[in-house]
Amino acid sequence: MQFLVIGYDGKDDKATERRMSVREAHLAGIVKMKDEGKAVFGVAMLDEQEKMIGSVMVVDFPSRKELDAWLKVEPYVRGNVWQKIDVFPARVPPLFMPSK
Q: Which end of the chain is flanked by fewer CB atoms within 10 Å, N or C?
Protein backbone atom coordinates (compact mmCIF):
# COMPACT_ATOMS: atom_id res chain seq x y z
CA MET A 1 0.00 0.00 0.00
CA GLN A 2 1.29 3.43 -0.85
CA PHE A 3 1.33 6.32 1.58
CA LEU A 4 1.94 10.05 1.31
CA VAL A 5 4.16 11.17 4.19
CA ILE A 6 4.54 14.88 4.90
CA GLY A 7 7.13 15.74 7.55
CA TYR A 8 7.26 19.33 8.78
CA ASP A 9 10.54 20.54 10.27
CA GLY A 10 10.58 22.48 13.51
CA LYS A 11 10.58 26.25 13.23
CA ASP A 12 13.11 26.96 15.98
CA ASP A 13 16.63 28.33 15.45
CA LYS A 14 18.17 24.83 15.63
CA ALA A 15 15.86 23.20 13.06
CA THR A 16 18.28 23.45 10.11
CA GLU A 17 21.18 22.27 12.27
CA ARG A 18 19.20 19.18 13.36
CA ARG A 19 18.24 18.41 9.76
CA MET A 20 21.79 18.70 8.47
CA SER A 21 23.22 16.61 11.32
CA VAL A 22 21.17 13.55 10.29
CA ARG A 23 20.68 14.25 6.58
CA GLU A 24 23.33 11.78 5.37
CA ALA A 25 21.77 8.99 7.46
CA HIS A 26 18.31 9.93 6.14
CA LEU A 27 19.52 9.85 2.51
CA ALA A 28 21.34 6.53 3.03
CA GLY A 29 18.12 5.03 4.37
CA ILE A 30 16.15 6.37 1.42
CA VAL A 31 18.62 4.85 -1.06
CA LYS A 32 18.16 1.48 0.67
CA MET A 33 14.36 1.91 0.61
CA LYS A 34 14.49 2.85 -3.08
CA ASP A 35 16.47 -0.31 -3.83
CA GLU A 36 13.86 -2.34 -1.91
CA GLY A 37 10.96 -0.70 -3.78
CA LYS A 38 9.69 1.08 -0.64
CA ALA A 39 10.58 4.67 -1.61
CA VAL A 40 8.63 5.80 -4.66
CA PHE A 41 9.31 9.53 -4.64
CA GLY A 42 10.47 12.28 -2.34
CA VAL A 43 11.15 16.01 -2.26
CA ALA A 44 12.32 18.57 0.26
CA MET A 45 9.82 21.34 0.94
CA LEU A 46 11.35 24.83 0.68
CA ASP A 47 10.36 28.23 1.96
CA GLU A 48 10.56 31.44 -0.09
CA GLN A 49 14.32 31.66 0.61
CA GLU A 50 14.75 28.04 -0.59
CA LYS A 51 15.55 26.84 2.94
CA MET A 52 14.46 23.24 3.61
CA ILE A 53 11.43 23.21 5.91
CA GLY A 54 10.12 19.68 5.53
CA SER A 55 9.80 16.63 3.34
CA VAL A 56 7.18 14.94 1.20
CA MET A 57 7.54 11.27 0.38
CA VAL A 58 5.51 8.61 -1.34
CA VAL A 59 6.40 5.25 0.17
CA ASP A 60 5.18 1.72 -0.38
CA PHE A 61 4.73 -0.62 2.60
CA PRO A 62 2.51 -3.68 2.99
CA SER A 63 0.65 -2.01 5.87
CA ARG A 64 0.39 1.09 8.03
CA LYS A 65 1.99 -0.94 10.83
CA GLU A 66 5.14 -1.41 8.73
CA LEU A 67 5.14 2.26 7.77
CA ASP A 68 4.97 3.18 11.46
CA ALA A 69 7.88 0.81 12.18
CA TRP A 70 9.95 2.65 9.56
CA LEU A 71 9.02 6.03 11.05
CA LYS A 72 10.33 4.87 14.45
CA VAL A 73 13.83 4.45 12.97
CA GLU A 74 13.77 7.23 10.34
CA PRO A 75 16.66 9.64 11.16
CA TYR A 76 14.50 12.74 10.68
CA VAL A 77 12.10 11.39 13.30
CA ARG A 78 14.77 10.12 15.71
CA GLY A 79 16.76 13.34 15.24
CA ASN A 80 13.70 15.46 16.08
CA VAL A 81 13.79 17.13 12.64
CA TRP A 82 10.19 16.40 11.72
CA GLN A 83 8.07 18.05 14.39
CA LYS A 84 4.74 17.15 12.76
CA ILE A 85 4.02 14.24 10.42
CA ASP A 86 0.91 13.74 8.31
CA VAL A 87 0.33 10.33 6.71
CA PHE A 88 -2.33 9.58 4.11
CA PRO A 89 -3.05 6.37 2.22
CA ALA A 90 -2.31 7.09 -1.44
CA ARG A 91 -2.14 5.51 -4.86
CA VAL A 92 0.30 6.60 -7.53
CA PRO A 93 -1.22 5.90 -10.96
CA PRO A 94 0.82 3.66 -13.27
CA LEU A 95 1.50 6.65 -15.52
CA PHE A 96 3.73 8.13 -12.80
CA MET A 97 5.38 4.94 -11.61
CA PRO A 98 8.99 4.40 -12.66
CA SER A 99 9.49 1.67 -15.21
CA LYS A 100 11.47 -1.32 -13.99
A: C
